[in-house]
Amino acid sequence: MTAPHPPNPEPAVAAEPAAEPAVEPEVHDDGPPPAGPVANLGAGLVTLAVGVGGVVVALALGVGTPAQPGSGMWPLVVSVALVVLALAQLVVGRAGGDGERFTRHSWMPLVGLATLLGLVALLPVIGFEIPSLLLSLVWMRFLGGESWRTSVVCSLGAVVALYLVFVAALGTNVPHLF
Amino acid sequence: MAGFEVVLEPTNLLYCLVGVLIGMLIGVLPGLGPAATIAILLPLTYGIEPVTAIIMLAGIFYGAQYGGTITSVLLRLPGEASSVVTVLDGHALARQGKAGTALGIAAIGSFVGGTVAIVGLTFLAPVVASFALDFGPPEYAALALLGILLVSTIASGARVKALVAAAIGLLLATVGRDAFTGTERFTFGSLDLADGIDFVPVAMGLFGLGEILYNLEERHRAVHAPGKVTNVWPSRADLRESSGAVTRGSVLGFFLGILPGGGATIASMAAYAAEKKRAKDPSRFGKGAIEGVAGPETANNAAATSSFIPLLTLGIPANATMALMFGALLIQGITPGPQLVDQHPELFWGVVNSMYVGNILLLIMSIPLVGVFVRILRVRAAILAPITALITMIGAYTINNSAFDVLLVVVFGAVGYLMKKFGFEPGPLVLAFVLGSLLEESVRRSLLMFGGDPSGFVSRPISAVLLALFVVVAVWPLVQSARRRRPAQAPTPDREEASV
Is there a contact between B425 and A1 if contact means CB atoms under 8 Å apart? Predict the structure, then answer.
């Protein structure tokens, strides 16, 4: 799934309004630089922590004997493998690896994530229509830089289309207001 | 051949058609490759009866594959690794105003490659399945381990990170009630986790939402507008020039696709290399050689189809996309494996024959509809992103009518985004997650069989051979990089596999 992003020689479409002119120079580049040793160190430490946590929980579950494996044995084997791999990554993998540095646009996925969590919280309470509309507006207007008019029209259209597909056509049980 | 009657029922044909169409629609969105497309669309196949659902999935599968080709040619954005080489000549052709020809040849090549592979599958699959009927838990354990290792080592990123991802996938698979003892593991008191983590939210989050979140940030440097696409029907000269490439690509793709781990990717690259080597004037390659599109596009479809062989006959998915198909079949109550041909012939042949139909529908629809897809690509990503995200979220809810599933999708979406940022492949994680319970069960059953003596694994010939292969695959790269490092002192030891 790692689709490489070759530099695009074609001119950028004039989609972005003047809201963020500083963005332009980045349009043609090859993407942010690789994540680098600090990120690799961090990722290694996180995986190490997950592995150690797994070992602790697995031991508490009871390992049993090879003839009578307990429910903790397999998680223990996997967690130990994870610890070994995490250590290997900390030792040999610090310089290499792909990944990319966080850019000054990295707040966007964070906002996106927040709106998605909002949708999860509101969905069972007030149905999908209003949260979907709000999410779509935020993504189009603030994350995508579309005009208010485009954002409102497209968001309304999207919610109506989703309603027609999921409620009217497929008859799913997704909570809905109307 | 009873499967054909089933497939040709009007309802089934309609679902196949719808599958191809929406597979292409979502697959054509930049950044969303076949795995993401299938993950996002999985909920649509719920509540449909199994055979129909599988036929629709076959349609989605082929549509999604072709969707990736469209973005490769028009936008230089390959949907997945297997259409990376298509970019070289496909996009060069597009810049010469011959995007239509490239897409047309790709569709025809895909059709031929896919069909050749299905014919091969029809004959080979029952043979492999009968061989695998003797497999017991130790063989399955060894096979699953080998499959996970192969997918991790052939992944395009850093090898250690791919293995880390696989280990985390195995660990995630243990969440929930232990099938042997009933003890709850890693549930931390949560009732929602007691039944384990469902495969679909994991796949939808890691592949679907993860990509969507990543693209939110990415969009700022990848704004494209495809040109006009005319003349989709290739000329007679184009067809003549590519016929050899299509033939070679079909055969090459079929055989490389059976091997576990990124079959389609290797097949497309091998086909490109083969065409370039055979060409009278290799310098045309990269500047719009039609064989440079025909060969790889034929080979990757042939390989994508033949990679169903290990899935349907051994129950071992060969790559991430197959892991998704595996999950989808499980949800329909079908456990792929050697018994499938004998015990449920109608399902087995239904799956196989639905591929014929999916492939034919793809050919019929792709060429006339290219214009529509180009128009979709002109719609700005800022407008498409929330719509795709909402389809994913609402789709996830409809699986079990559970808000917890939607939360899982969001959580795994965040994990998928972070994995991408830190250079971890989601493929090995999903594959290991899917195979996790099979692997644990096989290992524990084997240990019970052997009375706790692990040497039992090497005393049975087939599992011994598989484990020996496992060791070779695991150790070989270490030997290789040690050899390479000694003379050159290479500073980045774990990047060499990117050249696979």
Answer: yes
Separation of alpha carbons B1 and B353, rounded Å: 8
Asked if B351 and B58 count as a contact pair (C-beta separation under 8 A), the reply is: yes
- The pTM assigned to this predicted structure is 0.83
Tell whether B445 lies on the interface with A, counting CB pairs under 8 A.
no
Residuewise pLDDT in 10s, chain B (500 residues): 556 777 778 888 888 888 888 888 888 877 677 888 888 888 887 778 887 888 888 888 888 888 888 888 887 777 777 788 888 898 888 888 888 888 889 989 999 999 999 999 888 888 888 888 888 899 989 988 888 888 787 666 678 888 999 999 999 999 998 888 888 999 888 888 988 898 888 988 998 899 889 888 876 555 556 666 766 778 888 888 889 999 999 999 998 888 766 577 788 888 999 998 888 888 888 888 999 999 999 998 899 888 888 888 888 887 788 888 888 888 787 888 888 888 878 778 887 888 888 888 888 887 778 778 878 878 778 888 899 899 999 988 988 888 999 999 999 999 999 998 888 888 889 889 988 988 999 999 999 889 888 898 999 988 998 899 888 888 887 787 777 766 554 444 444 333 33
Which residue do the tokens 């051979």 mark?
B465
Angle at B431 between CA B187 and CA B362, to 5 degrees: 130
Residues of A in contact with B172 (CB under 8 A): none
CA distance A114 to A138: 11
- Could you give the count of Cα atoms lying within 13 Å of A138 in the half-sphere of its Cβ? 19
Are the beta carbons of A67 and B452 separated by less than 8 Å?
A: yes
Residues B84 and A5: beta-carbon distance below 8 Å: no
- Taking 3-state DSSP, the helix, strand and coil percentages for chain B, each rounded to the nearest 5, stand at 80, 0, 20
* Residue B87 touches chain A, beta carbons under 8 Å: yes
Q: What ipTM goes with this model?
A: 0.82
Sign (positive or negative) of CA dihedral A144, A150, A155, A158: negative
Q: Does B39 touch chain A (CB under 8 A)?
A: no
- Those residues whose C-beta lies under 8 Å from the C-beta of residue A91, and which sit 6 or more positions away, are none
Interatomic CA distance for residues B15 and A170, integer angstroms: 13
